[in-house]
Amino acid sequence: MNDETQATSSSKAFSFISRSWREVRDSADADIQLMKNRANSFKNLATSFDRELENFLNSANRSSAPAEIDFVKKLQPKISEFRRVYSAPEISKRVLEKWGPRARIRIDLSAIRNAIVSDVDVDADAERDGGGIIEFDRGKRGRVGFRELWGEREVGEWEPIRTLKMRLREFERKRELSVEEIFGGFKSSDFVEKVKSSWKAICKEPEESKDVPPLDPTELLAHLVRQSGPFLDHLGVKRDLCDKIVESLCSKRKEQLLLRSIAGGECSVLENDNINDELDLRIASVLQSTGHHYEGGFWTDFGKDDLSDKKRNVAIVTTASLPWMTGTAVNPLFRAAYLAKTEQQNVTLLVPWLCKSDQELVYPNVTFCSPEEQENYMRNWLEERVGFKADFKISFYPGKFSKERRSIIPAGDTSQFIPSKDADIAILEEPEHLNWYHHGKRWTDKFNHVVGVVHTNYLEYIKREKNGALQAFFVKHINNWVTRAYCDKVLRLSAATQDLPKSVICNVHGVNPKFLQIGEKVATDREQGQQAFSKGAYFLGKMVWAKGYRELIDLLAKHKNDLDGFKLDVFGNGEDAYEVQSAAKRLDLNLNFQKGRDHADDSLHGYKVFINPSISDVLCTATAEALAMGKFVICADHPSNEFFRSFPNCLTYKTSEDFVARVKEALANDPQPLTPEQRYNLSWEAATQRFIEYSELNRILNNNKDDAKSSRNDGKIIRKSFSVPNLSEVVDGGLAFAHYCFTGNEFLRLCTGAIPGTRDYDKQHCRDLHLLPPQVENPIYGW
């Protein structure tokens, strides 16, 4: 029915256009015919005038006197010339060709006038003597008056010429009126306005096409180098070098524009000091001037839901869950709670579910029979620490524990556990870990914005293993591969992590509010004169060599005599606990090993100094917690501790001698109370604000899906647009497809260390999570 209505409307519109054009054509034909008739009338008038002159001359020739009059002899050739020019058959054509909106038709009668006036001037005196009577034949009495013969003395008032001028003026007036009636009515008609508006809508003219110069070779080269940055990084070319090349190329262009603007006396519009922004705006302005719009490339997925008018959905996907007290289990849980607290978006936390056999390896002294039991445990633990009920959803995906890697590996396609209707923003905690063996839908195709948060310095751990340098080389490039293919933005907690594509450095973690409360209580006790710290120094962490135990034992063994009488309590459990304790006993170190416990435990409040010599951490959560409780922290001068250096109670060391000095300094003095600003910087409220800012989540949550940056040029706003064909997007899509094909081969998965059977979840996972059995592999699944 809708198609019939559209067809009827189209038919009526076409009929209306045809009828209007026929009316205009008929009117124009009638006016053109009128012009032709007027031209023919003028031609006939000229012919009649020619006959009158010829009759006059013939009558003069028949008399005896005119044949001898000199002025008649001079007039004859002029009249013949007039007759030849203005009696030609093509006179009508010439008149029509010279007609314009303001045309005037003139006939050159200067030859006749000059001939007449010259003869009249010869006998001027005789004319005055004879009362204006010219004697044509002195031998006869017959006299002819000059005015009777020629009319007035002025040639312009000669009767035939005056008649001709009158008729020409009348014709000119009618012609102008007819033209105005035709074209004036045509211009003001509704039909023309409709045609013009339709034509503008169909053929939209690009704006400012004449004012924007095209890109020059240096700008094109700078854009190509910048787009190829991640690819060059794979080849070993550092990002800093690419940035310097782009800056050099853009600086040359900027200098040229400045010279031109100064020479032309114009104001420079290059107010932005960011070279990348200037280049983006320059490309956007050129594309805007040409009217170009990029519709997407080979890898573009047009299946994303448009959620711009709905409440946004954030899915946080992590690699661990409570009761495993690791950073990737605790911090994502707090992030979900504080993002949900803002009430600007719906939040879902997606954590791994382990079968009973794997739970016994990972979770200390507790196992769960169902996901609901584990969810209740997680919520109770969280509410005890944050002091409010967090309104977010917890979901589970199948996972398996790898003893060799000491981590949980996802089984199957993790992205399928977020429904498509809720697939808006994804936060991948440890994106490289989640995607090492990911075989399924590409995250950036399913979600509108994907943010990766790097927690772990895997390269540092791998270098400690056998053939660590070779393994680290391959892992580095695999991490680059998967994070570039599956993330839009990557946040690195510190510079201790691998420099990944699309990454920025920012600490987006806070501390448990309970630690800040403990710090406030300590400050209050000290103000009241009470002793806040009754114990010395301690160290807390998972008991594996990579968590700082190797550095700790080396330092204490080297300076055993310098730290005579120094006692250190160590809290922790882990796979290397026996080896660590054996090494300390063998070296006769004064270390008191105890079981691991929560850092907020009451038994730890009385310690004044927290020692953390680890250089493998990305951002040690225990260090932040100790600072929040008002303690001294002694840590290495290392990029992982960069965030803590601004706190006065953080004492860093570069050498082992510095370590000894810092220990003695901390034991001899009392830590300073935290200021309100310092407490806020450690809180999860501040960390959430930093996360929203650096992940560009504020732009996404505000429904601003276009490139938000803009520049004002000559009073007009030019926005950087995603319509620019992006070489990186094409390469990223190719990398994602290659990774999908690679992880689909079970043999290749096993060669790279994957757990057998993790391409799909198993039957036990189906029973625990109430899942359907995995479907037969689709060769184009996810693409």
TrEMBL record:
UniProt feature coiled coil, ranges: none
Glycosyl transferase family domain span: 537-671
One record GO biological process: galactolipid biosynthetic process
Enzyme class: transferase
Enzyme Commission number(s) of this protein: 2.4.1.241
Domain of life: Eukaryota
Entries under InterPro entries matching the protein: DGDG1/2 (IPR044525), Glyco_trans_1 (IPR001296)
Similarity annotation: Belongs to the glycosyltransferase group 1 family. Glycosyltransferase 4 subfamily.
Full protein name: Digalactosyldiacylglycerol synthase 1, chloroplastic
